[in-house]
Amino acid sequence: MSERRLEGVGVTPLSGVGTVIWYDQEVDLPEPPAPDEVDPDAEHDRFETALDAAREELQAERDRTAEEVGEDEAAIFDAHLQFLDDPQITGAVEDAIDEGVPAEHAVREGFEGAIEQMEAAGGRMAERADDLRDIRDRLLRIVTDSERLDLSELPEGTVLLAEMLTPSDTAQLDPERVAGFATAKGGRTSHAAIFARSIGIPAVVGVGEQLLEIEADAEIVVDGEAGEVVVDPDEATRERAAESRDVEIRTERVETADGEPVEVAANIGTAAELEGAVAQGADAVGLFRTEFLFLDRATPPDEDEQLETYVEALDAFPEGRVVVRTLDIGGDKPIPYVDAEEEENPFLGTRGIRRSLGPDAELFRTQLRALLRAGAEGDGELAVMFPMVATVEEVDRSLAVIEDVRAELDEDGLGYEMPELGVMVETPAAVFMGEQLAERLDFFSIGTNDLTQYVMAASRQNEAVAHLHNPRDPAVLRAIDRAVDAAHAGDAWIGMCGEMAGDPELTELLVGLGLDELSMSAVTIPNVKGNVVEIDTAEAREFAEQALASETRAQVNELLEE
Predict the structure, then answer these.
(1) DSSP string, 259-326
(2) Fold topology of 4-25+149-244
(3) Which residues act catalytically here (predicted)?
(4) 191 is catalytic
(5) What pTM does this model have?
């Protein structure tokens, strides 16, 4: 039988080959009895007992995920715990029980309205609907006393297939046992995809209905780099998949074949991810997303708590650099204790440096105090960058705040060290004003996720324009090229910390464009380092020139395929 290839969205640059096990977490319910046969008091008790059990399970899964994967990923379970206490959801279940509906049917009915509402909103809110399904199915399993497949004990060499996987499903997967997974639904930013990248499991999502035709016990390859599921793979395909897991970890810094150094760094959200970054061979931290220190808590972290975290990061890379992004909230990252009005279009609203120089000025000053102090106490080299910069005035005002903070620390008699200072290049305005910004700063870091969104006028949350949100578009490549030229003209170094940097297919192109540093999810570092050492810089520059001359994304893709 010849192999058959199904296309989806690859979320990790890894491949795996194994035997299919299907996972279906849906609980089948019988027809409910008549309302007059139901005891509402008894059903309320059953529902309350299920809520308590669900809270215990979620807390245990949250603690395990924080320890084994990272605090960033564990925060997903905090949101689930909040949903269990949401009166709009639990109230709908309780109302159904009052009307004579058994607890399990009431759970199904009570969650349906909220799920449909989130799905209708589209984008990231639609992905939150998956979180609600996760909670609903957990409650149904508990209240019906149904068995749950233990995904942490799957046979070695399993490829898990499902219509979709929830965060609590994916968090159980053991990368030593699971060769990969594929889902019919889901996108690159779904929680299942995020977990796959974090724990290093080959994964393809969004394959569609054709995935459901694959039979249990079939042998398949999950190619997370090409975004393919290969059914009945031939020997050559199986061998390539097996070899992809044996990527060499290079702990030393790398350079191109003709001797040009390229720093390969890690993006992290919490100190818990530092160990994994070091283990994958990261030279440095190219993006420390500090907002995760501020999320899922009632009050902001104080100066000493932040200082301890930043010093821990610097100590993890005594010979490297740690680039810390100042608080980047707004858009899709609200913080409960920050007074932020709901905005019509939050991605074009008050976010990033706009908030730090405005309503969050005190949080900004406290963070800068902790950072400057950490620069003196930690072993590594500190760099600090400001997010969502659009104007020269924003940079000038930020530098003035740093000078004020320095004066405060002098007055307080506290030691500090000035870090390198830079900005995230995420807006077309920052690209166009690049030369003026570089005169004031030490470095740029290109955030391709947002830069693509703003260059292409295509929201990251709107699936209807997802085809436009692609960093391979010539317009985005030309924006990157212009930013690189501006940085180097001002004697600033320039890196990239968007997801584009971690795509091994694009390493040669990015080196050819002149990037000095590439920062990415830790799991992709070995592949990118392996590509860097094979690159001839002159050839890469010629390749980049051809890509920049392209008029369509199809032409860019054709060049990449060649």
Answers:
(1) S-EEEEEEEESSGGGHHHHHHTT-SSEEEEEGGGGTSSSSS---HHHHHHHHHHHHHH-TTSEEEEEP
(2) Glucose Oxidase; domain 1 (3.50.30)
(3) 191, 497
(4) yes
(5) 0.73
